[in-house]
Amino acid sequence: MSYIRTNVANGVGEIVLDRPKALNALDQSMVDDMYDVLLRWADDDDIETVMLTSGTDRAFCAGGDIRAIRDSALADDTESITRYFSHEYRLNQLIAEYPKAHIALIDGAAMGGGLGISVHGEIRVVTEKAMIAMPETAIGFFPDIGSTYFLPRLPQGVGMWLALTGARVRGSQALSVGLATHFVPSAELGGVADRIRSGAPLGEILVPSPDKHTDHPPLPVEQIGEYFSDTNIAAIVGGLRGAVGDEWAAQMLDLLGHASPTSLWVTARLLELGETAMLDECLERELHSAEKITATHDFAEGVRAVLVDKDRTPAFVPSEIDDVDPAEVSRIVGV
Ligand code: QUE
Q1: pTM of this prediction?
Q2: The Enoyl-CoA hydratase/isomerase domain covers which part of the protein (predicted)?
Q3: DSSP for 154-207?
């Protein structure tokens, strides 16, 4: 029993994510199977293009198998945790360096690990049903999968905003900031996938269509830039708190109030460091941070509250942004 399916025809290798009950959350076997297939296809002269799709219309990929990681952490099974993250990040790096066209078709939720197997690739097609987010601060983790490399490279403040608040962006919004490269209406995506499978030239299938992607309002880039162009959490929160009467700022404070305060500090520091680092350095630092943070109270508690018991009331320690110990942040980040 495998959670990915593959097809090869007309020079196109397709990987179908097929774990619908977990919204295609990536477990160890999926990470390893995808890595093996992609490595094999990289040297296969019969394959010119790799296409990544979902076998369910419920989601593209909800993230990593974070419940299993929590179980390993509670059992002190650090080996399994290191194996999972090191193999996942190795897959992200392979996709970033892939010698052939790599196309992800995103027609539903893509969070965390789901972005790691798409955003590093050359082409990311989204629809109005795409829902993109990095929600890890809510579970006492941090945005990983090489996002500490690509988030700081998004327009002014957008990466920090996504990383800290876990805000969800839709297809056209993802396109506008560069997370996606193409927009196709959901109703037309099946036809586009079939044309890619037929081996037709990508340039003829994926043509920019600036007027088609007006499905959702533009992102409030001005406010994002105003409040999130900083790497210091205290400064960002101070700015939002000082914005009396700004409804958007109040909403952002509410989102930040659901996050682990320690995760917020760790996230801001990792994005700051990622700004001037290469992808491989970012992934290495993320691996260190993942090993450390999964052993903390906030991770076990955050996953419990959001994914296990689903009461959505995690008891994070400390509970206040101002009470996070900088030494603890340094210990997790490793710098
Ligand atoms: C943060 C996360 C994840 C998340 C929610 C967060 C994550 C993840 C899932 C998820 C959701 C539904 C499923 C599932 C997993 O949710 O990584 O198996 O059915 O995988 O706030 O990082």
Answers
A1: 0.97
A2: 13-332
A3: SSTTHHHHHHHH---EEHHHHHHHTS-SEE--HHHHHHHHHHHHTT--HHHH--
